[in-house]
Amino acid sequence: MDTNRELPTRKLVFGSCLVGLTIILVGCGLITIQNTINTWLPIDQGAPNLALSSLFTQDMAALTPESIQDAEEISTIQSSGKPDEIVALHQSMDDMDLLVVHESGLFHRWDMKTQALEAEYDFRIGMRTGVNFNADGGQVVTPGMLVSEDLLYGYSVWDTSTGEVLDCKGDHCPDSLKNYEEGFEDSGLVLSPNGEWVVDYRGWTASGYPTHLNTNSKGRIYVETDSFDDKYYTIDKIAFDRSGVYLAVAIEEGVLKVFDIEYEFLSPADKRTLIEEGEIPGEIISDDTFSSMPKERQYGRYDDENPMYTADLAIDDTRTWLARLTDKELVIYDLRRMIFPRHMKIPISNSNLLAFNHSGNLLAVATDDEILMFDIAKRKQVASFDAGEATALFFTHDDRLLTWGDADGVIHIWGVEGSEE
Known about the structure:
The protein has helices at about 5-40, 270-275; strands at about 60, 70-80, 85-90, 95-100, 105-110, 115-120, 130-135, 140-145, 150-160, 165-170, 190, 195-200, 205-210, 220-225, 225-230, 230, 235-240, 245-250, 255-260, 280-285, 290, 295-300, 310-315, 320-325, 330-335, 340-345, 350-355, 360-365, 370-375, 380-385, 390-395, 400-405, 410-415. By secondary structure, the protein is mainly β.
């Protein structure tokens, strides 16, 4: 037998098997990674469930990257009789009314078709940057008391249909709702989309408290930023996605984190119970120890030397895009990608607000003197409008109008006239 001839053949066979095994292992690894991504952050691949056009917008074309160049101001509403900055805009549950909160605490409900004032209430506001609505516009949260230039204490949650206070924290609250212990001074707060949580944040922590509307609470939301060498990093903005499943946290030193709040922020006792009942993944190690799978994703890196102030933060309705607007730039991440998720990075130094349309294909960014429009998929700016300084931005639920407010209390309504047919 010629052993010298068989040796290369054996090496060739062995090498081929090794290559094949490597390919199989790599393939399995990629499948595992992809499955992990899909189970952690499911992405809606289909079109979102947009609202039907209201009587006011039925003759308007949808605002898309292709049509936005033709948008123009079609109407204005003088929402206040004196200069009173608009700090938040939203739509009523039936999509017929526009909901407006002014810096003074004045709340107005405007009929979008007739532009008639439907309701007016006085909501207490201690700080203009902490006002936001839940997903259907039924509730709005306002900061309680301004204790210094950039810190507040407490909040109120209001029913936008009746003007009644539904939940409250702080010394300003009515006696019937004073059921919270004294808390810390906060730098900001957010109302969850379902109206059942108020999340406030200060320094390196964010805490969520169940409101009176939350009767099934299993604990409270709590998150800390990372710490290295006894240095804690600072949260300067948080935002929910519209479904209320995910909470994005912008850290001043550069990092963005997205948390699954459906179970990540439950109390340890509640989390352990759910693990034991098999409702969430995890392992009971001993009587007082358990492990659970992390539900967190991080974007960017920590940079102590170049902190950045986050002017606005948002996850779009399709949970595809995560956008951060800072004092230096606009950065958008593609949540479908674990490797190289950064999708866009555009230097913008004088911007203050951003808003996704509900289809997730158009982004409006307000600067000191104009509104910029970006086609997100194509990574390019498609339009700009001279608009002065916008203080609030909102796309209507059917994606047919962009509404924005200004410091004089005027609501500006933009759209594209003519049907899509």
